[in-house]
Design goal:
The structure holds 2 protein chains of 2 kinds. Chain A has helices spanning 5-58, 91-108, 120-129, 150-161, 212-286, and strands at residues 75-81, 112-118, 133-137, 167-175, 181-189, 207-208. Chain A is an alpha/beta fold. Classes of the chains: A alpha/beta, B alpha+beta. At the A-B interface, helix 1, helix 3, strand 3, helix 4 and strand 6 of A face strand 1, strand 2, strand 4, strand 5 and helix 1 of B.
Chain lengths: 287, 142
């Protein structure tokens, strides 16, 4: 029966799409779990690091590290962390929008902007949008290592050390839970001291070996790297979560489309049968 | 009972060890250091080598670190271990690579645009082909 051939092919094609989206949803779900584990396992390091930095802020080293000092702002650096792939809902675009509003504020104040992008979506967006990209890293994969980020971070830190930028921000998506991810803009340098540890308020200092400058330099670089790494890992968890949700919505949508089409198809077939019957009956009555 | 201190060995990608210990030996940059509880606060970079931890009861454990930082407080010792090999030259090379990536992207900034444009053109061509085919069918029928 030739009835509704178009509808049938349409249903078939939607079913194929649904298969793909469902598979992507499941892949994203399992990847998300792994990314969350990775996020959790990188947390002790950054917490310990933060503790040490906090201790340092209360210690009284003879050498004041430039990252701890604020200076007049002329040029601002951003490290923007995005995903490498699309199909993850509005995750990247929400973040870019947030970043742009932040940048606009900065721009209105008369500061200039340098960019460093991690992930190909950010690279593509800012290449199109226009922006001074000084460094970029793409295709880090699902399990990036700190080693993949050293270069990009160093470019920005060098720019800070040489006085090209006076302030550095990190932009990434914060993983709140599977359903919610929100863009976050965090100030990396100058380092903002957060927790107050009352027990350590008295006057003391570390013994530095070989000397405080060398130790602090090495420590600060690692601190910034750990923050960026944490941001990247968190962004990957966000990406997978967002993709899972987006693909689930797509699968559901495909399901309801198929239902509608199926109904239309059944109606068309029924109509054809009825028509055929009435023709036969009409023919028989005429004889 | 011997005095103990809390030891944490962490790397950026994972927690390696966390527990109480009687003593710790680490390859500091200026030479090996042995840390007992109530050591004065100290901070030093580490060389690649092994960190030995003597646990409560005298059991010894060793961990390999490829460099990092050692922070000592009276009752806590933290080893912030590196996962990557670090040296000035290597870092420099990585930075250079990141810069080159950016420059490359700027040079063929059109890369992504080109792709989008090509995609649009392809879609247009396909649409044209389809119309032509449809027209052909129609002319055949009539």
């Amino acid at each position: 029966m030739a009835v509704g051939k178009e509808i049938r092919t349409k249903i078939k094609s939607i079913q194929n799409t649904q298969k793909i989206t469902r598979a992507m949803e499941m892949v994203a779900a399992s990847k998300m779990r792994k990314a969350q584990d990775r996020m959790a396992s990188s947390r002790p390091y950054s917490e310990k690091m933060r503790n040490v930095i906090c201790h340092l802020a209360f210690a009284h080293p003879e050498y004041h590290h430039p990252y701890l000092m604020e200076r007049e702002i002329r040029r601002i650096g951003y490290i923007v962390v995005s995903s490498d792939r699309g199909l993850c809902g509005g995750l990247n675009n929400n973040m870019f929008r947030e970043t742009l509003t932040h940048m606009k504020d900065v721009h209105d104040k008369g500061h200039e902007i340098d960019l460093c992008t991690i992930g190909s979506k950010a690279a593509a967006f800012f290449a199109r949008f226009g922006g001074n990209i000084t460094a970029q890293a793409t295709h880090l994969g699902d399990a990036p290592g700190v080693a993949d980020l050293i270069g990009t971070v160093k470019v920005m830190l060098d720019a800070y050390n040489e006085g090209e930028i006076d302030c550095l921000y990190l932009v990434y998506n914060e993983f709140l839970n599977t359903m919610t991810q929100s863009p976050r803009i965090e100030q990396l340098i100058p380092i903002v001291a957060t927790q107050e540890d009352v027990a350590l308020k008295h006057h003391w200092d570390y013994i530095y070996e070989p000397d405080s400058k060398e130790v602090l330099d090495a420590l600060m670089v690692r601190y910034i790297e750990s923050l960026v790494y944490q941001g990247v890992v968190e962004n990957i968890a966000c990406e997978q979560a967002a993709r899972m949700v987006a693909m689930k919505a797509a699968s559901d949508n495909a399901g309801s489309l198929i239902d509608e089409l199926q109904l239309a198809y059944n109606k068309a077939r029924q109509a054809a049968i009825t028509q055929e019957l009435s023709e036969i009956i009409g023919g028989a009555a005429a004889v | 009972m011997a005095m103990t201190m809390h030891v944490d060995i962490v790397s950026a990608e994972a927690e390696i060890f966390s527990g109480t210990a009687e003593m710790l030996v680490a390859p500091a940059k200026m030479g090996e250091v042995g840390i007992y509880p109530r050591h004065a606060p100290m901070m030093t970079p580490l060389k690649p080598g092994e960190v030995r931890v003597v646990r409560e009861g005298g059991q010894e454990e060793t961990f390999y670190v490829s460099g990092g930082m050692l922070e000592v407080q009276a009752h806590t010792v933290t080893v912030l271990s590196d996962t990557a090999l670090r040296a000035h030259d290597i870092d420099e090379a990585a930075a250079l690579e990141a810069k080159q990536h950016a420059e490359q992207a700027l040079k063929d900034r059109t890369g992504e645009m080109e792709f989008a444009k090509a995609q649009a053109e392809l879609a247009e061509a396909v649409a044209q082909l389809q119309t032509i085919q449809r027209l052909r069918k129609k002319t055949k029928r009539s």
